[in-house]
Design brief:
The protein is α/β, with parallel strands linked by helices. The protein has helices at 6-12, 57-62, 87-105, 119-130, 148-153, 174-182, 197-200, 203-211, 286-300, 305-314, 343-357, 377-390, 404-413, 426-434, 453-461; strands at residues 4-5, 16-19, 25-26, 30-31, 42-44, 67-70, 80-83, 109-114, 136-137, 162-166, 186-189, 220-224, 240-245, 252-260, 263-269, 275-280, 324-327, 333-337, 363-367, 395-399, 420-423, 442-446.
């Protein structure tokens, strides 16, 4: 964080200095997790649904925190403290003040990314590009909510040139809350899909939430031309609109995509007519969309195309547990994509697996629950099982009671005899699968985070 005195921080968060010298200056990392706190950092004691961050104030003190933002001060804590009514709101308010100050003194450009799928991969791709031309701050993992996003903003330094932000949806008004104070110069709308549709109520509501970013974009809106909902989004007057996708009318048009275990080759056509082949080491046709969005944003920021293309080509991984390809010493390939799952991302991952299967590999899909689908869940899990059969995947393993309809759907779609196997637990599945893999097999492991299959993927890959 930039240097601020306790007095300046108290003003920014509308708080009261309980202990500490108002003139003392802090500039450390800000976090709500005491385990991430180090010497000189700022600890926010967040009141959570199941826990109270004030319990960890002694730990933050032990780790050397310089300041704690609290709603309930502790007289026995040997640390400067600022009392506020709501520590999460204080986190946002301090981030907004830091963002305002850095914008005022430099040439900071903020890029906000939202969408049902692809946020994290696109964020990492864009950060990989921008970090080659200027100091760049981007979220770690999927820090994209009312806590994670301000924590990312608070990592700004006076000479930061680019701030890349993920904006996750958590209901009506959630994107509005994030975008209204970040005011990104560039906004990227990736997709309105079925992810979280059950939690939100419908795809229409998801679209409404994603659209909340649009009025807060100040320079360029980058939109998915292939998405029938996103493509109709309109930016505010004076804000440019740039599109990407497979659509022939897209400004950043994706041509043929070729998949193999070596990566993804993408024919890219740019608005000036230039056509180039982008070679990603990252797997997945859907990564072409993420790459096109990142290239579009980079061009709006004036990054030379050669630098952008090289940066993307050099990436080894979009993100841990996102289409992460691991080759075991015995020649088995494991694709661990079990951090998130929606019907759209499941379909994309299976499509990639099927394409690789047509290149002479036996294909194995290890699938778990897609969370937050609500009343759509049964039908969509059933459809997924049927899709596995239609894609000619050689072997299906379904893990967890919540995902059992994938197994049932596959059994009803195909005349299978043992090609689909159901396991109730991850450990049971590992015992069933591990001894049956041979050299050349390609194993896709995919589920929502809550199913825990990412750890099964690690085990199958020999990483645990």
């Amino acid at each position: 964080m930039i240097e601020l005195s306790l007095a300046e921080i108290a003003t920014a968060v509308n708080g009261r200095i309980v202990s500490g010298n108002p003139e003392d200056v802090v500039s450390g990392v800000c976090d709500t997790d005491s385990r991430n706190i180090g010497v000189g950092d700022v600890f926010f004691a967040k009141l959570g649904e199941h826990d109270d961050g004030h319990r960890y104030l002694p730990d933050a003190v032990t780790r050397g925190a310089a300041l704690a933002i609290v709603s309930t001060p502790r007289a026995d804590a040997a640390i400067a403290q600022i009392q506020v009514e709501d520590t999460v709101l204080a986190l946002r308010d301090l981030a907004a003040e830091v963002l305002r100050r850095v914008r005022a003194i430099g040439d900071l450009q903020v890029i906000g990314i939202t969408g049902s799928n692809g946020k994290t991969s696109t964020k990492n791709m864009l950060a990989a590009i921008l970090s080659r031309v200027g100091k760049t701050v981007a979220p770690r993992d999927s820090f994209n909510n009312e806590v994670g996003l301000p924590i990312t903003v608070l990592r700004l330094e006076p000479d930061t040139r680019y701030l890349v932000l993920e904006m996750g949806a958590a209901g009506i008004g959630s994107i509005e809350k994030l975008a209204s104070w970040c005011k990104p110069e560039i906004g990227i709308e990736l997709k309105v899909g079925l992810a979280h549709a059950g939690a939100f109520g419908s795809v229409d509501i998801t679209a409404q939430i994603k659209r909340e970013l649009m009025p807060h974009i100040t320079k360029v809106a980058i939109l998915n031309a292939d998405d029938p909902i996103v493509s109709k989004f309109e930016p505010s007057p004076g804000v440019n609109k740039v599109t990407f996708g497979f659509d022939n009318g897209a400004d950043f048009e994706i041509g043929r995509v070729t998949l193999s275990l070596a990566g993804t080759d993408i024919e890219m056509k740019f608005p000036d007519g230039d056509a180039q082949l982008l070679r990603l080491k990252i797997l997945g046709e859907h990564q072409a969309m993420n790459a096109a969005a990142a290239l579009a944003a980079a061009e709006q920021l004036g990054v030379p195309r050669t630098i952008s293309m090289r940066a993307l080509s050099d990436m080894e991984l979009a993100e841990r547990w996102r289409m992460q390809l691991i080759q075991r010493p015995d020649g088995v390939f494991v694709i661990n994509d079990a951090y998130n799952a929606s019907p759209d991302s499941m379909r994309a991952a299976l499509q990639t697996l099927a394409t690789i299967g047509r290149q002479g590999h036996r294909t194995i899909a290890v699938l778990g629950q897609m969370a937050e689908l609500g009343p759509y869940g049964n039908e969509l899990h059933d459809q997924l099982g049927r899709l596995v059969v239609r894609y000619n995947i050689d072997q299906l393993y379904v893990v967890g009671d919540e995902a059992k309809l994938i197994h049932m759907g596959a059994m009803q779609e195909g005349s299978w005899d043992g090609e689909s196997h159901f396991s109730q637990t991850v450990s049971e599945a590992f015992e069933v699968i591990a001894g049956k893999l041979v050299a050349g097999d390609v194993v896709l492991v995919k589920s929502s985070n809550v199913a825990g299959l990412r750890f099964l993927g690690d085990e199958l890959a020999g990483l645990k």
